[in-house]
Amino acid sequence: NNFIKAHKYKVNNEDLLKNLVSCYNEAENYRETESVKFPEKLLVLVEGATEEKLLPVFSEKTGLDFNKLGVQVIAAGGKNQVEKIYREYCRKLNSTILVILDADAEKMDNEIKSFLLEKDFIFILPEGEFEDILSTKLILKAINKFYRLTTEVYMEEIESSSPMTEVLTNLWKHKGLGEFDKVEFAQIISENIVDTNDISPTLNKIIQIISDMIKI
What we know:
Structural class: alpha/beta
């Protein structure tokens, strides 16, 4: 909007479309140099706060800076809100949209696919929830570093066939760490992501999808 005002474009100008394209390119260059995120190029719609917090951090370790590239991650606040928010954004925006759903969202997946735009894509987490695709080594390292003065956790305490959220909820209770909080946990994890070695295969696949969709 600031660029448009600065150039004083008018609706009745016969070169308006050409000028707006030029203006948009100028705004994209500004985004890349100043890391301001907008104008957005790709919208990543996720279910919860964990994905919203951690995806940009993991991606940055591979060289993908979401702010420079115009990638915006939005948490729907639960799988039941994903369809509603996708409908809203696919009508309003010209941006490409990637929808990431937990493994148990098969019904939601089918509903969205019934009106999914050709340029958009849905990715289902094969392991379960986002917490289930995190490296157990990273989880162990993060917990022990954060709670080093309180307790110590061992690998066998978090390696389980059960959902990771369930494992961590029980662990928090057993270790006297209070109630397990996904948002706090995401913050603890984000502070301990060092490099690409902390990125699991499924996370690598998601990041590759994001990279490919940016180039479309």
